Amino acid sequence: MVRFNCDYAEGAHEEILKLMMETNMEQTPGYGADPYSEQARDLIRERCRNQEAEVQFLVGGTQTNLTVISSALRPHQCVIAPETGHINVHETGAIESCGHKVWPIPTEDGKLTAKQIWDAWESHAVNESYEHMVQPKMVYISNPTEIGTIYSRQELEELSKTCRECGLYLFMDGARLAYALTAKENDLDLAAIAQCCDVFYIGGTKVGALFGEAVVITNDTLKEDFRYIMKQKGAMLAKGRLLGIQFIGLLKNDLYFQIGDHANKMAMKLKAAFQEAGCTFLVDSPTNQQFPILPDWVLKELGENYSYSYQERIDEEHSAVRFCTSWATKEKDVDSLIQDFRRILGKNRCV
Amino acid sequence: MVRFNCDYAEGAHEEILKLMMETNMEQTPGYGADPYSEQARDLIRERCRNQEAEVQFLVGGTQTNLTVISSALRPHQCVIAPETGHINVHETGAIESCGHKVWPIPTEDGKLTAKQIWDAWESHAVNESYEHMVQPKMVYISNPTEIGTIYSRQELEELSKTCRECGLYLFMDGARLAYALTAKENDLDLAAIAQCCDVFYIGGTKVGALFGEAVVITNDTLKEDFRYIMKQKGAMLAKGRLLGIQFIGLLKNDLYFQIGDHANKMAMKLKAAFQEAGCTFLVDSPTNQQFPILPDWVLKELGENYSYSYQERIDEEHSAVRFCTSWATKEKDVDSLIQDFRRILGKNRCV
Amino acid sequence: MVRFNCDYAEGAHEEILKLMMETNMEQTPGYGADPYSEQARDLIRERCRNQEAEVQFLVGGTQTNLTVISSALRPHQCVIAPETGHINVHETGAIESCGHKVWPIPTEDGKLTAKQIWDAWESHAVNESYEHMVQPKMVYISNPTEIGTIYSRQELEELSKTCRECGLYLFMDGARLAYALTAKENDLDLAAIAQCCDVFYIGGTKVGALFGEAVVITNDTLKEDFRYIMKQKGAMLAKGRLLGIQFIGLLKNDLYFQIGDHANKMAMKLKAAFQEAGCTFLVDSPTNQQFPILPDWVLKELGENYSYSYQERIDEEHSAVRFCTSWATKEKDVDSLIQDFRRILGKNRCV
Amino acid sequence: MVRFNCDYAEGAHEEILKLMMETNMEQTPGYGADPYSEQARDLIRERCRNQEAEVQFLVGGTQTNLTVISSALRPHQCVIAPETGHINVHETGAIESCGHKVWPIPTEDGKLTAKQIWDAWESHAVNESYEHMVQPKMVYISNPTEIGTIYSRQELEELSKTCRECGLYLFMDGARLAYALTAKENDLDLAAIAQCCDVFYIGGTKVGALFGEAVVITNDTLKEDFRYIMKQKGAMLAKGRLLGIQFIGLLKNDLYFQIGDHANKMAMKLKAAFQEAGCTFLVDSPTNQQFPILPDWVLKELGENYSYSYQERIDEEHSAVRFCTSWATKEKDVDSLIQDFRRILGKNRCV
């Protein structure tokens, strides 16, 4: 069985493990006050071209989302998110558990537009019962989105502009950021993201680290006492240097982007094979998650040797599923998946 | 200016005020442990034909909703509600503030169906990531709904059956219950509601009381320690007898139902006048809230002497608005509203 | 049975009821946007000599405390309170339910001193693990305290000065404020309180209203969006004018202070009688709550005709109890209590 | 500089790192559904002699405490804890952030007694205002405590018996459990703890793991939906096998207990040296944390080469500090610390 169901099936990239081994017996202060975390912070600030950014390291994505959001909002404020957003669907109500409504906006492709933000904000602002409704104060986006799509520089700049006009914080969940920044049509970089967002994070867990997400806060208001909230939410790792070390490993020699690039290439190879066989897709994704729509009988047979994750039923005979590649995906596994897919499909068509 | 914008523009029905005056200088224990509250509880249990029901009195609707829901759910559980439900729209995130997601289901008419509940529940139960999603545990409905529609006995029984099959609590918000139970096509009564629901409330604020909602809990699990939660949420009135006295006033001689009947008659008179003029409605409501779609220029002129509440824009020239009648609505005011409406409209049509 | 166990055993002062009757059938906007609430706000601002103060009306004390505190604090911040403070003891964890720790400080007499605040604040500020501890941000005091004692002007000014130096909000719970401001040794008034506190409230429930607490916010930061939080916590009364009307009744002709004065006089009469009999007291209270320490056999016999509330066991044969007077206490009831007490005690002594 | 300020200054024990390296490139399911986590669960169930226990792995201590407690309590319920308990002092209000009061009980030695629990419980149960107070439902203890003391089997059994009589859950924080179970006077083992407690955890972070705490739930009620709460609190590690692997490493060959034994021996050596020099201690600790009271001038000089953590001021010239040993403490470092201490002290005395 080869796993394509997610991008966190293995441990860590060997470069990262190596660094952890080498430093294992050193003594350092806890909770992120160590020199490795400092060094990682510097690397990140440099890549973001923002020397004033606050950088903090947390362990996982849900934890990061709930810490950032609960740190930023007052009790009556909500966060606007795409309906498919991770915080709306796959965090067991973590944000609500911190007291805040997630305001879900339906989208075509998992992405929010500046116009949608404006409309949502205005619908609240002009409502005669505005005090009886939650007040929007933050916009949550993911890049890439949960369905693999990415934001262009122009889209992000427009979002940012609108957020600033409306007094909304813009927060980007970058759990898979490497895969967005190395997609073929991408024109964003860390510096542009740091300029557009009030807070975002560079995801490690799904990009070759054992675990770890690096939160970058550029808005001064959001920096205040952020570490208290981390501690309160159980998000301050005792041996914090483990996070610093991993991000040094990811960023020092651009390993982060090499990993993204590799996974995307593997995904594009897979995508091409599905397209060639006449498959349609739930969404046109340029990144490491692909969502082909396949006949159920093909999925069943393919599933004997390759794991994927089930997305949704399309019709009585077809389902959309997700195939993920990652830093750890071997090209030979992609090749054999393609071969087996072709063999199973035979002369049939996907649709 | 005559107010038709809501059903709580005046104080209280004179019968209720009279009772409050008569008992004013008596000394009683606080927090609902007084003989008046006991008497009101007995009256309610009797009407519900359920001698074991726990009855508690709270001050307002949002308070009641958040107290009931936070008392019933564990942290990872959510409440399913119609998208138009009061808890989803008009309570400033009160439920989320207690830690729980409101799972909104789109509806045609503000009402949930048994099938919608089943589908929602099943979509969670069969999902491979079920632990990553909130767990549905309660269904919230309003009767009448926020847009005036009502549940039939069959609809409620089916909802109840499905909820029990799925292990979901059924909770009815009865902020305007009198108006539902006295609608022409209604076939429900308090006893049937008590049998179908695990918990519901009989609203007083919008039906002639100064304030007050009577929560009726029939499910034993939900009875446990309910009063602790009331106190914690600031929902236990010190002079609790004021609530008992008001519900005695409302229920002793069926005043509650007379009030509902009066308001509905006034609303039907208004509805007929709008229909006669060719108006369409946002929804076909048999109760005290009417949602006609009217030309903006008519609304503007009408608004000089009659207040209504703005609902939503329909097209560039028409809006849906809400006219409410209540226990306090005078027939002469309805008549003059109708007359003025006809005069303003003249030979024009509504559409 | 005559009740001395609390100060909210009756309904409302007749002046207040009269005003409610007179205005009952008027139509007004809801939620405190009515002219009566505006008039009451003006009266309060005038008494506080602060034209910029935000004044909002809530229904009860626990509700007010949780609304004010959760509106003011970020998630990692706590409120310092006397160990005997209402929020620490008698609100079923309402403050914690909003996410905040109550930091209890032991006191002799229910009052906090400037030095205690400074020490608490400093113990946090200098701690090397400060981020691992809750951050103090607000100080909660009651005047009179839960055990009847009152703050002098000098004490309050010192508290205020220290709070400002430490960046702490000062919040006064004035559930029984009338009884403090009319105590013999009192040298505070509403204007002084408004100057010293960032937020406080003028209690109505225990001073002759049916219910109602008037929150006065003088600190601009705390004014922002306060009404959203009220709505979210179920603390925005639909028929908000009922609150405005009651505070007009209380303040227009200084009824509030007459009520306080009357109750204190009744309490002093009772206190003198206990003292004369050689009683000691749990605390020396100059206000409407008296805490004599009495032999259990006396309490038992007295309890047959007069209710008091049990405070705590002192030794095997003595208990401290609470006798309250109020706006509604009749002098003849105090006299007969004293007479009966003397008769029961006979030649025995209290100690 | 040699660090004795905490027991988590290094990475992980080499056995654990080795296992992580060996399994690094294997593909497994996420979130703890992998075979390594299963194997670790079996090992733990076996040591606990409880085949029905639910075992779940979390990342850190604060996270574990807040997840366990918020999973167990309803909104109005509180957890009783020693005043020095980690949840009361050093978690930035994590428990309150989940809505629950921590009820602190003063102790001599960081340990709660059965009598204290009974008294606390009874003081609530008999109070006439019981609904106005938080309801105790769980007891939190740490073993060893935050100040190094340990529970005997008899003490734990009595606590357990009382908790069951009162309907309270007993929860043991075992962040440093290895150090308790290998202390010289210890007579507890995992099986006894599993029998006495409703839920407890075996700490890894402070005992040689990179991170990780293994929660053992023996009470069926507390098992229900525990993983939902983990996910909601951000406590479900994506690459969950990392936790399973580490606990295999810790438990397979009793490494966990060897580590505990080593650290305790190092601590006893240090303790003896302090005692020999006439030092007194804040508390008599048989485990890896020692709290000597030392002259400030000695501390200053010692601090140039050895880090400790500051505990509290004793008098104008003395402070209590904490020296920790751990799995990673080298005997030669302890020896040189002792030597330097003796040299610095010279002919002076500690007191």
Structural category of chain A:
alpha/beta
Gyration radius of chain A, in Å: 21 Å
Instruction: Say how many strands of chain A there are.
Output: 14
Low confidence ranges of chain A: none
- Helix percent of chain A reads 40-55%
Looking at how many chains there are and whether they match, the oligomeric state comes to homotetramer
Give, in spatial order, the strands making up the sheet with the most strands of chain A: 2-8-7-6-5-3-4
Biggest sheet statistics of chain A: 7 strands, mixed
SSE topology string of chain A:
EHHEHEHHEHEHEHHEEHHHHEEEHEEEH
Separation of the first and last Cα atoms of chain A: 26 Å
Using CB atoms under 8 Å apart, which protein chain pair has the greatest interface? A-D, 52 and 52 residues
Strand content of chain A: 15-25%
Number of helices of chain A: 15
Shape of chain A: globular
**Average residue pLDDT of chain A:** 97
